[in-house]
Amino acid sequence: MYIKKQRLLTPGPTPLLPSALHAMMGSDIHHRTEDFRNLYKRVLANLKDILGTSNDVLVLVASGTGALEAAAQNFFSPGDEVLVCSAGKFGERWVEIARAWGLNATVLSAPYGDAVQPETVEQALAGNRNIKGVFAQASETSTGAQHDVKAMGHAVKKTDAIFVVDAITGIGTMPLEIEAWGLDVVIGGSQKAFMIPPGLAFLSISQKAWGSGEDSKSPRFYFDLKRERKNAATGESAWTPNTALLLAFDEALKYIQSLGPHKLVANAQLLAKATREAVTELGLELFSSAPGSSVTSVRAPRGMDSGVIVKEFRSRFNAIISNGQGSMKGQIFRLAHLGYFDFHDLFAIVAELEIILNANGHAVRFGSGVAAVQNAYADAALAKEAALTAG
Amino acid sequence: MYIKKQRLLTPGPTPLLPSALHAMMGSDIHHRTEDFRNLYKRVLANLKDILGTSNDVLVLVASGTGALEAAAQNFFSPGDEVLVCSAGKFGERWVEIARAWGLNATVLSAPYGDAVQPETVEQALAGNRNIKGVFAQASETSTGAQHDVKAMGHAVKKTDAIFVVDAITGIGTMPLEIEAWGLDVVIGGSQKAFMIPPGLAFLSISQKAWGSGEDSKSPRFYFDLKRERKNAATGESAWTPNTALLLAFDEALKYIQSLGPHKLVANAQLLAKATREAVTELGLELFSSAPGSSVTSVRAPRGMDSGVIVKEFRSRFNAIISNGQGSMKGQIFRLAHLGYFDFHDLFAIVAELEIILNANGHAVRFGSGVAAVQNAYADAALAKEAALTAG
After folding, report:
1. Which residue of A has its CA nearest to B6?
2. Rounded distance, CA B310 to CA A75, Å?
3. pLDDT at B388
């Protein structure tokens, strides 16, 4: 307990891929050169491949919020009527952004931890033919809840509205069939399942979305997506790109391709399942009624502030996990699975959680939660072996 | 189980300190400059401080074996009579080196896993007044056994012989009072408790050792320690230094000083204790009769090749641990504690060991070994708290 390695275990920024981190050391390149254009084209092509779409894919030098704003700015005009699904802190951010850009937002809300039902979206669309867009989180990072964007997409598809999906923690943690499900704008960020530091955001954009943006009257300059599209076609970015992060992104995309993008999702799903089983075994309650695989929100035991758990992870083990956000601060803590996480991480996290719970009056048997993770691992290993034999 | 981060968990090379790794990026410096001289002087001074000695301390561009050879070369002459304590693969290396340099070596051997007793050394010294040197490992890395170099040193001190200690895995894992115990030459390497990659070796050298080397007739050039001493006094190395590793070493030494050198030792001792308790709980047998804290050697269960355990750590979890060496290959596996290891590592390692044992016919209850580690942690945390309250 004298040496405590710092470990970043939050749902963003997430643990870094070493080869990506090392690639940043090659940043002494210039961005108006053929070398850079090759890099940029490769990153865009590989990202498109991993997202599984033939829609346009653009990268911005911004955090995810910048890309959320770019969507509101480029595809709508002040006064447009939009529906905003809100089931947590990031749903609330959609509301704020929509209002900042003068959009006439109808909020479809669900309590923290729950998800807005697709039927609610469908009914709202049916009740108002003027709706130009629907905003939702694929995965609500503040609670770990997952929206059924497939069903929502099918509802939006039948209308003239476009479906704008914040998939910042959805990509890499849940299946997302961008074209089949009608996800017109899908937004991601570098510091999530992509295993690199914050600083890059990206969007996939359907023809329907570009069409919707044709007559947009919102002012824009830095986030002018048409301008980015025009430049991207030549392997350049409109403004100075973040070369260090693009070098890292290039490595991370290669790693994800070597792993297989669906395995990135399967990895998060398996760790999420093991985590749910472990915390249940430890007598804790899951917070979300619609738990996804980006992050698992867990209620602190009765009478214990979840901040104590977060603080003791840091003070005892130098491990950084997340507290609840917004109104859930102090009530829940969040264990992340998205991106570069593995079972080794989870064995240790659960062992540490057991120690912290015990030290704070929630008695658990040492090793019992870890055993639940070990069983989840063993079951999955057997299933994988059986699949290999069958194949 | 789709993402498996590679984790280096061997007794050397050991896990790297991130700040040291990052410092290597500053290698675009020249070694005949004032900047370098300041770096080199600081490294030597801090290393001396951490070793707790006022003896000369020299750094070589070599792996540890180079420094072992330098000792044989610089402080003895062909034909000199020496005693070599040998209780494993590295003891055998001392014998090979002594013979390569024409020393007349009497081998005091103990079986793998055991330690040579200080009385054996004392008796051999008493029986031959011509002995010029005694060679021993502080910690025999191949078995995890620890020699009582304090008692050995006291015996050697009374004679004209010098005591040459391979402390490559001893430094940072056991107390070593260089001057008080009469450890005339103490040898260490960068890739052990010092948390940086292989490539640097170092020696502390007493006045008695320098005296013994005065009339040495062995040829030497690269490993001419007097030449190194003369250069080191001016902040330079005799030959081109490994600047990348010196930058890393500088960071690692600062980290160890901020931690406190005795806490580096306490950390390894605590992890070693927790490991012994965990493997015993899992029904496994410790290999060494004199277990130290650099590495714990564990016998594979009856009928199981220890290579299977090592291979499955890699194939299932991408974790690199060590097999037995020499005659112990296939019979034991080794779990390391020296340098940048913490409880988080150990929780996961033991959870993984449980899975591997279970999958290979040695049934254990999942979580039972982890619980032993958790109990060791909790006991130490309570003791630390009590000490803080008392202090």
Report:
1. A18
2. 56
3. 83
Element at A205 (helix H, strand E): strand A200-205
Q: What gap in Å lies between CA A294 and CA A12, rounded to an integer?
A: 10
pTM for this prediction: 0.95
Contact between chains at B370 and A370 (C-beta distance less than 8 A):
yes
State how far the Cα of A172 lies from the Cα of A163, in Å rounded to an integer.
19
Q: Which residues pair with B146 in a beta bridge?
A: B139
Q: CA A204 to CA A390: how far, in whole Å? A: 37
A2–B354: do the CB atoms touch at under 8 Å? Answer: no
For B18-259, CATH number? 3.40.640.10
Query: Which one of B347, B356, B368 would you mutate to disrupt binding with A, by most A Cβ within 10 Å of its Cβ?
Result: B347
Give the pLDDT band (50/70/90) at residue A391: low
Per-residue model confidence as pLDDT tens digits over B114-167? 999 999 999 999 999 999 999 999 999 999 999 999 999 999 999 999 999 999
Residue A235 pLDDT > 70, yes or no? yes
B358/A378 touch (CB, cutoff 8 Å), yes or no: yes
Four-point Cα dihedral B367, B372, B378, B379, nearest 10 = 170
Q: Among A312, A344, A346, A375, which would you mutate to test the B interface (most chain B Cβ atoms within 10 Å of its Cβ)?
A: A344
Give A23's pLDDT tier (boundaries 50, 70, 90).
very high
Are A348 and A354 in contact by the 8 Å Cβ rule? The answer is no
Query: Element (H or E) spanning A188, and its range?
Result: strand A185-189
- Which residues in chain A touch residue B375, judged by CB atoms under 8 angstroms apart? 366
Candidates A1, A3, A7, A277, partner chain B, best to mutate (most B CBs within 10 A): A3
Residues of chain A with CATH 3.40.640.10: 18-259
Confidence grade of residue B390 (pLDDT, cut at 50, 70, 90): confident
Distance from CA of B217 to the nearest CA of A (A): 45
User: Tell me, what's the pLDDT at B62?
Assistant: 96
Query: With 70 as the cut, is the pLDDT of residue B210 above it?
Result: yes
* From-to residues of CATH 3.90.1150.10 in chain B: 7-13+261-390
Spatial separation of the C-alpha atoms in residues A129 and A134, rounded to whole Å: 12
DSSP letter (8 states) at residue B291? B
Half-sphere exposure in the Cβ direction for B272 (13 Å, CA): 28
What is the CATH superfamily name and number for domain B7-13+261-390?
Aspartate Aminotransferase, domain 1 (3.90.1150.10)
Return the closest-CA partner of residue B247 out of B199, B203, B205: B199
